[in-house]
Design a protein that fits this description.
about 350 residues, mainly alpha, two-stranded parallel ribbon, 12 helices, about 65% helix
């Protein structure tokens, strides 16, 4: 299909506007991608690229049944529309829709890679159409076969690392070649072969970018889904809620009622209660089981009675023991006539 039939001002302007807005967002000096000005550019760029993609689909510009040589040189740049849509979709910062944006961006990148592979642009492994729901491949879970089965995964990791290194080298080489050709192509000084080579180099560069972005998206989706599963498992069952309790007022615990009456709180404005009163109050609030209060009260009253009886018995025994009483009196008399340190002639101690 000839360029004049497909490239009207409207289509080329939409692609140019969307790409320009993406470059401004990518290389902008704004401190945060969530700034309103940045997000306005993202929204405008997405709208322009989506309209351009709809026009390309309506014109049926590309087909998997044709060869790369059948595409006009000036039409090659429209192959980049899905990749640019995926790149701008990732620039959205609405955290409540982050998983939705990741899925949409991944679909755009995958369609771009699938289209490039159908035209024989680049040699690469096409990722799955959708990420694994549970992220088994990216989660690093142990293989069921044990250490022997884990060996292939180590080989795959080494192969993936080598592929990343190769993609990085290709990316740098492509960027250098594109930089040297951009001035001639955009200035209208390049011939058709140079224009075609320039656009194919751009496509190859975006193939490497799309592969890297899909890998990063899959890893982030695993984290987001596991986080959502953890929140669901930790949430309380529906219809159950913790009973609201009135805040406790400050107070001082005392051993018994007599101590509370004698000593009080020590400063005004603070109520004083015994341990038994506190237990009784908590029982009425439904916090402490009712049976624990009588048992504690009975136990403490029994201990108090036993202690009182022991003190009375000891006092009675002391009064009955005349010999012990006389010995204590003699000791008191001796201390009255002999001051402390009496007899210490050598200044010892």
């Amino acid at each position: 299909m000839a360029e004049a039939a497909v490239e009207g001002p409207r289509l080329s302007e939409l692609l140019a506007a969307g790409r320009r807005l993406w470059e401004e967002v990518e290389t902008g000096a704004e401190p945060s991608s969530g700034a309103p000005a940045v997000q306005d550019k993202v929204r405008q760029g997405l709208e322009a690229l989506q309209r351009a993609a709809a026009m390309v689909a309506q014109l049926d510009l590309f087909s998997e049944n044709e060869e790369l040589e059948e595409i006009a040189s000036a039409d090659l740049k429209y192959l980049l529309l899905p990749a640019l849509l995926g790149a701008l979709t990732l620039k959205q910062v609405d955290l409540s829709r982050r998983l939705e944006h990741l899925e949409s961006a991944r679909a755009h990148f995958w369609r771009f890679l699938k289209l490039c592979r159908s035209y024989g642009l680049g040699s690469f492994h096409l990722p799955p159409a959708a990420a694994s729901p549970l992220g088994e491949e990216a989660a690093g879970s142990p293989a069921p076969g044990g250490p022997a089965a884990a060996q292939p995964s180590l080989v795959a990791m080494a192969s993936s690392r080598q592929a990343k290194i190769e993609r990085y080298k290709q990316k740098k080489e492509l960027e250098n070649r594109l930089a040297s050709m951009r001035t001639f192509v955009e200035g209208g000084q390049a011939d058709e072969d140079q224009i075609r080579e320039f656009y194919i180099l751009q496509i190859q560069k975006w193939i490497n970018t799309s592969l890297e972005e899909i890998e990063s998206i899959d890893q982030e989706m695993v984290i987001l889904r596991s986080r959502g599963t953890a929140k669901q498992s930790s949430a309380p069952p529906h219809g159950t809620s913790r009973q609201a309790r009135a805040p406790l007022k400050p107070f001082i615990l005392t051993r018994d009622a007599a101590q509370a009456k004698v000593f009080g709180a020590g400063y005004p404005g603070l109520p004083t209660m015994t341990v038994d009163d506190w237990y009784e109050q908590r029982r009425r609030q439904g916090v402490v089981a009712g049976q624990s209060v009588p048992q504690r009260a009975a136990g403490r009253s029994g201990e108090a009675k036993a202690g009182l009886q022991k003190q009375q018995q000891e006092k009675k025994e002391e009064e009955d023991d005349e010999e012990a009483l006389q010995k204590a009196r003699n000791w008191d008399d001796w201390k009255d006539t002999h001051p402390r340190g009496y007899g210490n002639r050598q200044n010892v101690g």
